[in-house]
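Structure first, sequence second, as always.
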């Protein structure tokens, strides 16, 4: 059934127009999909273009995947847009990416709001430019009551940095006598993470061939399924996304227990 649903869904299709998506069985979908959008640079180089052209093309893919999530009634999508380590890239590329995030918000906010998407950003956003911080705050505020896809963009995000901040906060609370170390629970840890309020990640998708987590959502992916593809992010289609979901549904998720199948 899933194959039928996604077959014929081409790169430029507007997923929201596909009534056949209604056929999907909602309770089989992952609650939370996290995507490492890798391979923009390789895609561009392969086309004889400069690396930044790959990031630009990557925005189009992202737009289509968010639309597909909306059409599927997905609960949460989190994408890795810029890591705490990405500052090591050449200045020009970093500047290009920051401008791209800003342009993306400016251009897409209206449509995402209309699509009932709830936008959030995680990571050390307070270190971004004042202009981008304002756009982020506005996007969060404007879409805060939306009940559709919870779409989270990780910018200046690192999983280890997030865990470090959580430990520092709980240690400070303990020092102030608010909690005893032995009283700390998994729920209290989760309440300090940037992703508080989101379900655990069910499925991680990484494009472009590398098979690693690269410091993305280290706590939240404890029991996630992983799906890797050699396709570069700009070439990743809603149909490829559908294949990942289809394969996810066939996995036997035991969470350390025994198979129910
Ligand atoms: C990894 O590809 C991609 C990034 C570091 C940037 C991701 C950004 C986008 C997809 C742009 C759209 C995002 C938003 C939120 C508007 P790479 O450059 O590491 O590729 P390579 O491994 O082939 O060099």
């Amino acid at each position: 059934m899933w194959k039928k649903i996604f077959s014929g869904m081409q790169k430029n299709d507007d997923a929201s127009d596909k009534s056949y998506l209604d056929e999907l069985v909602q309770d089989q979908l992952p609650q939370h999909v996290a995507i490492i959008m890798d391979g923009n640079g390789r895609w561009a180089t392969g086309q004889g273009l400069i690396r930044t052209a790959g990031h630009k093309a990557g925005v189009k893919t992202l737009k289509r995947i968010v639309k597909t999530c909306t059409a599927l009634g997905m609960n949460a999508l989190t994408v890795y847009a810029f890591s705490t380590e990405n500052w090591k890239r050449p200045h020009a590329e970093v500047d290009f990416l920051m401008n791209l995030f800003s342009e993306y918000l400016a251009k897409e906010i209206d449509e995402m709001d209309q699509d009932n998407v709830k936008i959030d950003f995680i990571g050390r956003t307070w270190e971004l430019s004042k202009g981008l911080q304002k756009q982020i705050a506005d996007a969060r505020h404007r879409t805060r009551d939306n009940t559709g896809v919870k779409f989270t963009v990780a910018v200046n995000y690192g999983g280890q940095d997030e865990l470090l901040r959580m430990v520092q906060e709980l240690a400070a609370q303990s020092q102030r006598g608010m909690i005893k170390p032995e009283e700390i629970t998994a729920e209290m840890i989760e309440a300090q993470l940037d992703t508080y309020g989101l379900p655990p990640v069910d499925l991680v998708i990484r494009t472009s061939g590398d098979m690693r987590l690269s410091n993305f959502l280290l706590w939240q992916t404890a029991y996630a399924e992983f799906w890797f593809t050699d396709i570069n992010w700009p070439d990743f289609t809603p149909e490829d996304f559908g294949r990942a979901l289809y394969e996810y549904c066939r996995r036997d998720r035991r969470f350390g227990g025994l198979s129910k199948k």
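Margin note: Residues 91-114 form the longest helix (24 residues).
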